[in-house]
Design goal:
The structure is a homotetramer of 131-residue chains. With 131 residues, chain A is mainly beta. Chain A contains one helix and eight strands; from the N terminus they run ββββββββα. In chain A, a hairpin with a 5-residue loop joins strand 3 and strand 4. Chain A is elongated, with a radius of gyration of 15 Å. The interface between A and B is large, with 34 and 37 residues. Chains A, B, C, D: This is Sensory rhodopsin transducer. Chains A, B, C, D: InterPro entries: ASRT, TM1070-like_sf.
């Protein structure tokens, strides 16, 4: 299938809750990134995490195989460094082929769980305008 | 009414929870696809499901009558095969007339329910650019 | 302020839950439409509700005063007819000036509440392309 | 990093719930605005709040440092005036550099929490069309 989507995406409202309950790992509080790569090439992703009070950290490097989807928990990212709990963050995602990105939160910190999902912001990159 | 919307949509963050509780079928855990067809023609949809570890499966064929809406549970899809529970998936939806697609999740697996809804990603298809 | 937004919006995933609990009216199960009119003119809205098994119903006529926001519960619409509970619906919203539309659901039918919010789909109307 | 995003954003479905429970301030009912500024310049934001029954209030002035994200609770805004609880509002956000905006709600007013997140509406401003 022909690649489609965008090469740059951004998330402004990231936050990994401090508390968690329920069986692990299904109910761990988490922010998740879902990336769909419909192309016939592997998608190489470089993500930079932005914070409120210190410089951005990155790149976090991820790969999504051709014609596959991958759900990535921000909790699981450890290189170049793990993300702190209970701190606001934003993420900028750059891929070398067009992909589709969705952002999901599962908050397991209270008796009830809450979940949010939203489309990430798809930037109009200069490369997209040129080609 | 004149058709409007897009012919291609995509979802990256699909996941059918494993557990479920509450009365059936209202509170079954589910991911749902909502498709609005405002045109005067039936909309024929071909959907391909993408996974993390194996090739895409499809097409799942669906039809939405003219000037109707249809909510489709991913749990209910059985041909060419049922979707596995508790596994990440993405979906690519191709319609032969423009439609509007929304993605909703109801997670009934815990004492509390959580629900998410988000607009699916509307791709710019080549056919759209040409016409 | 200059008007901005779009003149046509659509929602595919409408559904008013059957059950409700908690104090009225704050915790009544509801689907809500939020419309922001930043222009200096009143926005006249004509909405058509689409169903799974019968022809669309409408127009539902609403007005949003200049430089005001209005949150409208689908439960409260009665003319030309009230919306049925527990039935899938889609909505097409046409405004005579550009507005911004958001869709929110509060599901008060269980011990826990769940809420969803998503941007409505902003159609590219022919009038927008021409001007 | 090159600035990206949009200079104007809007939210139609704002509402700060009346009740709140759980430890403060994590579980206070809140509507939150998340703003990501990837540019190398500070982003100066002027926000106007729109209501159902009275004229818009603003500007609320905010600044996001270069290459930083900021999550802003509507509850915390006090100048030119605090936002009322339990009242519908919309927000128009104007920035002097492109930013990415997301809108999140945490409703802590009941035993269960519910949360919503949605992309704010990204307006096509006249400045963007010109440049």
């Amino acid at each position: 299938m022909q690649a489609f989507g965008k090469k740059r995406w951004a998330i402004a409202g990231g936050h990994i809750p401090l508390e968690s309950n329920g069986p692990e790992p299904e109910f761990t509080s988490r922010d998740e990134l879902a990336v769909l790569n419909c192309s016939d090439s592997a998608a190489r992703i470089r993500m930079h995490i932005h914070y409120a009070d210190r410089p951005p950290v990155g790149p976090y490097e991820l790969e999504i195989a051709p014609r596959r989807v991958r759900h990535i928990r921000f909790n699981d990212l450890i290189f170049p460094e793990a993300l702190p709990l209970d701190e606001a963050f934003g993420a900028v995602i750059d891929a070398d082929v067009p992909v589709v990105v969705q952002f999901t939160r599962l908050d397991g910190g209270t008796r009830a769980r809450s979940a949010v999902a939203t489309a990430a912001y798809a930037a109009r990159t200069s490369s997209r305008r040129r080609h």
